[in-house]
Amino acid sequence: MRKLIIANWKMNNLKLEIEDFSNRLIKLINNKDLRLIEIAICPSFPYLSLVNRFFLNTDLVIGAQDCSFRVGGAYTGEVSPDMLKDNGCKYVILGHSERRKYNKEDNNVVKIKAEAAIDSGLTPIICIGETQEEKERNLTLKVLEEQIKGSVPLSFFENVIIAYEPIWAIGTGNIPKIFDIVSIHTQLKKIIKHLINREVKILYGGSVTPDNAKAFFSLENVDGLLIGGASLKAESFFNIINSID
Ligand code: PGA
């Protein structure tokens, strides 16, 4: 399976930084064989078409960090998945824990957004993850299963990608034990297989850096990475990409 590497820039990078990032990354990946790796950059809405333009003649693709629950209409301030598609997006990240926390998005909202995104021809990357407290109470798998069942539209399951991002690992420098990641991804694949009898990609996210990326890439059932902080600078993002054998 082709590994997928997603840069989630969150609310970072202005025009000049984006220009600098893009010029550097294009030079760095120039001789890289990308047949076994897909790379997607996810900037904030206002910069989607700018990033798209920079990477137009490369194999890189772009994605958004959220979308509306509707494909069009009278929804002031919303950005529809049709508009994302129209601006060159292939992917949209949905249900990130920061949106679940600060924008009070629950599983049902994520599911409706995912349906709208799929309707528009986008591939949603649906984020799930447990809190530190849930982990300590041994509730991780229960929480993840609930999030999967609640936020993935069952009839379109094969059109989505899951990103397992333990909330306590995001931006903290703490990562799960390698054994736990393999075991959780394997369990998640089993849950999904049971639900739809198909395989879907499961990415890992949370404090991925150039130093630890290599270990993740070699893991069974880890189909790629969702990277926040370490994707903001071209060199560090490239070093992560480059750590795939
Ligand atoms: P991080 O963020 O790599 O900075 O921990 C990952 C994410 O939130 O997607």
Description:
It is a single chain. 40% of the residues lie in helices and 16% in strands. It has helices at 15-29, 48-54, 81-86, 97-102, 107-119, 132-136, 140-151, 178-196, 213-217, 234-242; strands at 3-8, 37-42, 61-64, 89-94, 123-128, 161-164, 202-205, 224-227. Strand 1 (3-8), helix 1 and strand 2 form a beta-alpha-beta unit. Helix 1 (15-29) packs parallel to helix 10, helix 5 crosses helix 7 (140-151) and helix 7 runs parallel beside helix 8 (178-196). The mean pLDDT is 96. 2-phosphoglycolic acid binds at residues 8, 165, 170-171, 205-208, 226-230.
Largest sheet: 8 strands, parallel, barrel
Indicate the percent of residues in helices.
Answer: 25-40%
Overall pLDDT metric: 96
Low-confidence stretches: none
Total strands:
8
**End-to-end distance, in Å?**
14 Å
Spatial strand sequence of the major β-sheet: 1-2-3-4-5-6-7-8
Question: Class by helix and strand content?
Answer: alpha/beta
User: What shape does the CA trace take?
Assistant: globular
**Beta-sheet strand percentage?**
15-25%
Radius of gyration: 17 Å
Number of DSSP helical runs? 10
**H-E order:** EHEHEHEHHEHHEHEHEH
Bound small molecules, which ones?
A: 2-phosphoglycolic acid
